[in-house]
Amino acid sequence: MASADTVILSIRRMLVPIRREGYPFVAILVFVALFFGWFWQPVFWVGLILSLWCAYFFRDPTRYTPLDPAVVVSPADGHVSAVSVGVAPRELGLGEQTRRRVSITLSLFDCHVNRTPIGGAVTRRVYAPGKLINPDLDKGNEHHERNGFVIKGEHGPVGVVQIAGFVARRIVTLAEEGDELAPGQRIGLIRFGSRVDVYLPVAAAVTVSEGQTAVAGETIIARFGGAPEQRVRVD
Asked: Catalytic residue among 3, 107, 194, 209, which?
């Protein structure tokens, strides 16, 4: 039988804090559920379910980031949708040289708080409005609404690009140029469907594979100063 301390700890883990950016959405849905549900009960239950989902969407759980300065952690919850090479978006000012790119795609059930993949100084932060299209369609980042960071760590600059979805185009920024960030620190929030791309120096060895699940601030997606970790898919 579980002790009282174990039960209390389990409850605390379930009661994850909600980002204040989500309060208006939750409040609107609660109002709709109560007001319109007074006239037609099915609306109450639909509004209640949507309110609970919205609170879950804007959750902001605690994460435990590795202290090793040679590792790069995932900037977002979701699945690794692409491991490739490419040129970082022009507005980041990282030049035309090819970089390793790791893309993390978030579903509507993933936590949408994004975190810095490395520790260092934010040397550039730039927002671009883009177009209203699906972030899963890789037609070039110049077509998407996006928010980019360049973070200079001890192994060189790393680019991080938040790409908004097509439901509610809004990127909330929690870090600015000149900020000194610790690994895994919060840098922003994307509302309702998104993707985050990380552009790494070619010296970085990617340690994840496409389709793998990633946890922001915890999953190691790359490492400096070593051979890439070999992984195979096991069904």
From this structure: 194
Q: Is the pTM of this model over 0.85?
A: no
Tens-place pLDDT, residues 26-49: 787 788 878 777 888 787 888 888
Residue 141: CB partners within 8 Å, gap ≥ 6? 89, 161, 163, 197
Domain coordinates of the chain in residue numbers?
4-57, 71-224
CATH assignment of 71-224? Answer: 2.70.70
Is 149 a residue whose pLDDT tops 60? yes
What are the b/e assignments for 95-111, b being 16+ CB within 10 Å? eeeebbbbbbbbeeebb
Residue of 115, 83, 112, 113 lying closest to 99 (CA atoms): 83
Token pair of 59 as six digits: 């959750």
Q: Are 209 and 80 in contact (CB under 8 A)?
A: yes
Any catalytic annotation for residue 209? no
